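Give me the 3D structure for N-methylhydantoinase B.
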Amino acid sequence: MASQTQTPAGGTLDPVTFEVLKNSFVTLVDEMAEQILRTCHSFVIYARDFSCALCDAEGNTIMQGSQDIAVHVGTLHLKAKAVLEDFAGDIHEGDVFAVNDPYRGGTHFSDVSIVRPIFVDGELIAMAQANGHWADMGGGTPGSFDVSATDHFGEGVRIPPVRIVDRGVVRHDVIGLVAHNTRAPGDIVGDCHAQVEATRIAEQEVFRLIDKYGTATVTTAFAEVQDYVERLTRARIAELPDGVWETEDHVDADPARGEGLVAIRVKMTIDGDEIRYDLSGSDPAIASFLNSGAGVAFSGAIASAKTFLPEIPLNSGFYRAIKVDVGPEGTVVNAGWPNAVTGCVSGAYEKIMNAGFELWSQLLPERAMACCFNLEYLLIGGRDGRIDERPYFMWYDWMAGGWGGRNGKDGQNATSPVFGVGLAVQPLEGQERLTPVLTTVHEIIPDSGGPGLHRGGCGVRKGGELTAVESSVMSYCCDRSRSVAWGIAGGLPSLPHGVWLNRGTARERFLGANFSGVAVGPGDRFERPSAGGGGYGDPLERDPAEVLEDVIDGYVTVARAARDYGVVVEEVDAEICDFRVDEQATAALRERQRAERPGWLDEDPEQVAARYRNGELDVLDLVRHHGVILDWGTGELLPRTTEQYRALLRRRSAAHWADAA
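Predicted structure for N-methylhydantoinase B (661 residues):
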């Protein structure tokens, strides 16, 4: 039977018009992104640390673009609603607003949204939003990532919804007030205007669509694309079994409470055609900036679901079918004002995502994926001695890393973080031109992928040297130095994060995976890894031919092939990549490891730590086989963390080995 076509006033568009407008909205948002890329001032935004969206008159997301960042998209509707709430009855044609408030649904202070209401014939019909990461928002350290901050007053400028364009007149005083409380006011002003112009492009495109289809048709499409996504989402959920699933992931520690992992607990309930996430069981907020606000926690849960339902577009219709209870204020996932939250994307956010991945891997095992590497930022700021005026510089860097091993496939090597796969690695040449920091190494790390039947993707090592720096400091926002990226279904973990300064010299220091304001000077050298992904499945079940191929490709060393996979590889001629598997020795080694490995997790942690300190064991032996976590700088055992980590390793890995029984 042919479908009946109704008028827009009847609430249903004909299928062709609907499809054209749905895709036009995606194109509109992508055009906003193109405008930002062509006119932004900062290197951070040029590397695509930004996102855009089109919202309806109530602030609900109509559509995102094709390369937007997950954590941004899940919060943009909340920022739009904050503008509507604060300026109810006082929003006019030609107005533009700015907001970055993480306690009103934003992410962190660096992510500043520019919001433009769109009017037709005096009626508000939509809102265009361009969100960008501004490289500095003030606070105690260059780049505004201060791990020592315990409240927002040490983190930077908080912008509640504020009018920056008043009926078409730019409020340079307001923009200047914000910009001149940062270390890079020129970049801030330039990026702000680039985002303002991006929202104008969106407004222009909405007007073009209205000229062609009429206001009633376009506004009906705004509603119907959300209804469409809701129907798709509910239909897909209805195919899944009802039930309750629970798991947890962890932040490394709370500085106020000593060592011990901080739990982020995720409970997921499926009831008919609806999913409910419950994060209320998470631990209290910590005395560091790795907490998240409610908007980020909501976004993390949504992003984990969207990762496993990639065929469904994302707008507010998705949120109608997938509900998120972030729990009361005061927890690590809903810290509330004035708790510090700037490091949320490296802290609570990606832990919520990866915990969600573990739950969805049980629901959709064909798409199962182990834990992915943690988003990290390294920042060096100070004065640039290459230039007579000694201007402020900020070397602001993030790395690619490994995604988790998957059902039937290895994890992806050197990929953007799950925080946002549209995020680009910054070009080294551009960094070196703009800052007095020279990159000395940038390479894939062998053995960084978590061992498994399907190996985790490999991470990356990046190092550099400071040249003509003056009055400079280094800060690092990361995690998983202790809550190492984990495997599932028997797979093993990756490796710990952390920064080394002047490694291999008399001035060697391990700075860890979270620090700020460390003084650095000319000639100082640094390096840090991005972890690989966790492994999927028992590594002793991996085909020796695949392990051999990994050795040839440089993803696994000969030594770790034996230690992690029980595969004995002989080096015939490394120059021409000639390696061979000793099948008889491999069979014997695997048999011995199957018998011995259950006992490794029961060995005395102090004795294991002593064997590490005397060189008998290395870091990978500890985190993968013995489940022992140390302070990697001093070699000191962390007993409480080790106890927690071992319990997780038993559940995710050892319990799935055939010899576990």
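The two ends are 58 Å apart (CA to CA). Let me know if you want a second pass.
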